[in-house]
Amino acid sequence: MAGPATPPKTPFTPLSVEHASTVSRVAAEIRRAVFEGELESGTPLREVALAESFGVSRPTVREALTVLVAEGLATREPHRGVMVATPRADSVRDVCRARWVLEGAGVLAWPEADDVRRARVRTTLDAYTAAVRSGEASYEELNERHLAFHVSLVELTGIQRLVQMAEALMDELRLALAQVERIDRNAHDEAGSHEGLVELLEAGRIDGPDGAHAFLRHHIEHAEVKIVEALGLE
């Protein structure tokens, strides 16, 4: 009696949901450890040691590390392997100044932005402040909600390419911001500052020395100095 027929091969035959989810879980756990300070900047991420720790294969760890490198949380260097990314002062300054250009354009676009984009700014702010005030959110969650708010400012322009640029910048900055919030425990201060910015926007106070545009510039300049000083990047 013939056995069951072998299913025909398709372009999707090699895919494995179980494997993919394992890679995601490994990446998520390493990401959590980085944000919580269990793995500091510059820590080597050795495939063999991680595979043994997680009880998974080295290829699975290798894929997870590739995900983290793409997110900017890890770097891969020839002859040295993969390690937790180390923020550099010049990169932090460049990113913050580029943020000012993009987010500043968003703030100036507030009067012409539609209600959906304006509501998105308020929604992301509320999500961030709620996470801060709950006292229960992880640094990873705080970081994600914080950066989502800043991206929502760029969304006010209605230009998707600028939004994509902002998201790429946030990927570069997420590790440094998380480290500063963890070191200084200053998320409450950040939440208050963001609320002040949105209050100015919703009041239509955009221009002038006391307007939202100037407020944002001061906020980003302060963030640049704070990150460099807190992480000793000079």
Tell me what you see in this structure.
The protein contains nine helices and two strands; from the N terminus they run αααββαααααα. A hairpin with a 3-residue loop joins β1 and β2. It has a two-stranded antiparallel ribbon. By secondary structure, the chain is mainly α.
Topology:
Blueprint: H1 17-35, H2 47-54, H3 58-71, E1 74-77, E2 81-84, H4 89-108, H5 115-134, H6 139-155, H7 160-184, H8 187-202, H9 212-230
Antiparallel strand pairs: 1-2
Q: Helix count? A: 9
Rg, Cα atoms, Å = 21 Å
Helix content: 55-70%
Helical/strand content category: mainly alpha
How many strand segments? 2
**Mean pLDDT, as a whole number?**
87
Task: Report the sheet with the most strands, covering strand number, pairing sense and barrel closure.
Answer: 2 strands, antiparallel
- Give the SSE string: HHHEEHHHHHH
Q: Kindly, what is the distance between the CA atoms of the first and last residues, rounded to a whole number of angstroms? A: 76 Å
Silhouette: elongated
The side-by-side strand order for the widest beta sheet comes to: 1-2
**Percentage beta strand:** under 5%
Give the low-pLDDT segments.
none
What is the gist of this entry?
Strands 1-2 form a two-stranded antiparallel sheet.
